[in-house]
Amino acid sequence: MNSPLLLTEFLHRARASFPGKEIVEYSGSESTHRYTYRDYHERVVRLAGALRELGVRPGDRVATLAWNHHRHLELYLAVPLAGAVLHTVNLRLEPAELDYILGHADDRALFADTDLLPGVERARDARPDMTVVVTDGHAPGTLNYEDLIASASPLADPPAVSEHDLAALCYTSGTTGSPKGVGYSHRALYLHTFAACLVDGHAISERDTVLHVVPMFHANAWGIPFAALMTGANQVLPGPRPAAPGIARAVEAERVTYTGMVPTVAVDLLAEAARTGADLGSLRALVLGGSPPTEDLVRSLEEQLRVPVFQGWGMTEISPMGTFSRPLPATEDDPDARRAQIRKQGRLLPGLRWRLVDDDGRDRPHDGVSRGELLIRGPWVATAYFRDEHPESFADGWLRTGDIATIDPDGYLEIVDRAKDLIKSGGEWISSVALEEALTAHPAVAEAAVVAVPHERWQERPLAFVVFAGGADTDVGEVREWLREQVPRWWVPEDVIAVDALPRTSVGKLDKTSLRDRADRGALGTGGVGTSGAGAGEHAPAGRAVAAGPAADGRGRS
User: Is 317 among the catalytic positions?
Assistant: First the structure.
């Protein structure tokens, strides 16, 4: 009755019960590595020994900056087996953010892919005591991953750890202010993994072949690698810079039964299947997360690909799963009703509790109409940030999600607004406040406001409204081009609209609801529209890595 709930038990179970099940890695459209759970276990135990020989001690943080490949998957279990904390780092962050996060976590070691090393030059200079290991080659001042494993002795006597000790760490990003760390205990991830395998959840089982499209740096890839390992499912990894052709090829060749991704990637996968005729019929579940899918996308995936579609919602602070949108049995013969439920964020997973509250903290009814801020608590929900004080995010043991939502009488959640006006483009967060600050840094811009507008491919894109300073002789196209040098290219708004004044509420606050309404009506102001020919295809984050999926985000939605 007193056995601790340790994440590393899944590793030993896989070796004992599923030694012949496979882990397959792809690069582009070709498989490049294939081995069994027996092989995986042996390499993980040797890697854990190597970590100890490097001086990594219980509680130390070990960072990874890597794509979805088999070595990254080995680190998922080797780091906690050595008693340390797996710190998966978002590979899309800017160097300054990487510097901050690696410094704040005080990582003892960093395991990085060769092509990602340039992004951490600044962090390495600031932390010369941090051991750097290259996963896929050699680089000056670093160690080689395969050399470490070859020379290490298997870790025969893992250090004793408590189920309450941290096993993993992720950082949020995309909000104003510095990223915040969220630590996950062994117990939290253990229970979260069981929830992922529930029939009314992701339903991962030994019968599955799971393709990890969701980045492994994002909240432990939704926790699905742990679920696959625990149940003995085959695992498929898409490798560096995954794109729709490679994903389609992996699904077809490996007869993948389960995968998850952001809607943007699903749009690309749908187009790829239409172009090539790829057979994706082996999928029993395609789970969408990161932002709500459009009705047309869900219908197209189900009717054209004949793939059942589901949706999950969560946050980095919830490890990350909070709900799963599996339609009610009554909707099975009504496709429209089924899709309407899928497009909601779903029912709360067992073990969690939630509330809707108004501005005064009073509970709102679960009638599908009444709105309130969503609060949540449970055994895998954060109660504090790592090495950081943010009391405004927590209230009497409840996590304040910052989402405005409704809950219907059947227990289905629907997010209707975001308290902090973040923009989710292709599964990645864009800070409207940061964009506004960048716009007002232009000498001709007196005021600026940025809102999210729907986009067929990227789900949301930023739209900017600006008020020019009196007498300024500037056009919006010039402002948009100037902005390219100030923020990541995929942040650049589709359009910049010149207006005479920005709307304000009765207390003088910027009225973004009014701006969204004007955008919906096409009443976009008195000025011109910035050139948007390059548009989201150039600027959206998945343009860098089409199938990279949702990143560690400002409020961590998965």
Answer: yes
